[in-house]
Amino acid sequence: MPLTPAIEEPQIHESAQGPRVTPAASRTAQTPRPVPGPRPAAVPRPGRPGPVRPAPPAQRTAQAAPGPVPAAPTTPSVSVAVPQVQLIPASAEGALDAAEEAVDLLLDTGRAPGDILVLTTGDPHPWAAHELSFGEAPYWAQHDAGDDVFYADAAQVQRAAGRPVVVFADNGGPADITATALPVALARAGALLIVCGDTARINSVLGAGV
């Protein structure tokens, strides 16, 4: 029986081997990559504000608590001066004499004549009657000059200018003249209104507080 030739196993030469694989144990350890830290704030572009990052809680500066808001300045209220009112009880027949006495007392205590205006509801004061005999124009010219006591009819109180002191003589006349002229006389008086007349009648016009 013929012998089958023995098959020789091919020998692998070292030169025919592939690239050697270095064992894992013999690999050189690579330098570890750095762990990325916190990202720096972005550099703002020219002309464009960069992002504002809030500071960490530990580094924040405590803000002072807001104090009380000052109240807005208020405009001081302007008080309208109310003249003092003095009542001298007198009858219709004696009101003009009482007014004359009041004028004399005012002049004696240093009040300037040009500060006084006298109003009558009934018969005019003798001075006024005398001056009016020369005409209305020179009569009111003396009023405008303001350098002496001026006597006028209460019915013309709207024409008379205000003065520091007004003396009102309720000496008769029309029934409604006092109710009409007395409030205007009060408005004309800058500091003092002296009323000579019936107390009940005057209080009914100016009020019970007078």
Q: What characteristics describe this protein?
A:
5 helices; single chain; globular; five-stranded parallel β-sheet; alpha/beta; 210 residues
Your description of this structure?
This protein has 210 residues and is an alpha/beta fold. The chain is built from 5 helices and 5 strands. The protein has helices at residues 95-108, 126-132, 136-145, 177-188, 199-206; strands at 84-89, 116-120, 150-153, 163-169, 189-197. A 5-stranded parallel beta sheet has the order 1-5-4-2-3.
What secondary-structure arrangement, pairings included, does this model have?
Layout: E1 84-89, H1 95-108, E2 116-120, H2 126-132, H3 136-145, E3 150-153, E4 163-169, H4 177-188, E5 189-197, H5 199-206
Parallel strand pairs: 1-5, 2-3, 2-4, 4-5
Q: Can you give the mean pLDDT?
A: 76
The separation of the N and C termini measures 169 Å
- Helix share bin: 10-25%
Number of strands: 5
Q: Spans of 5+ residues with little confidence (pLDDT < 50)? A: 12-19, 21-49, 69-79
Helix/strand structural class: alpha/beta
Order of helices and strands: EHEHHEEHEH
* Rg of Cα set: 57 Å
- Biggest β-sheet, characterized? 5 strands, parallel
Please report which band the strand proportion falls in: under 5%, 5-15%, 15-25%, 25-35%, 35-45% or over 45%: 5-15%
Shape: globular
Major β-sheet strand ordering:
1-5-4-2-3
SS element count, helices: 5
Summarize the structure.
The protein is an alpha/beta fold and 210 residues long. It contains five helices and five strands, in the order βαβααββαβα.
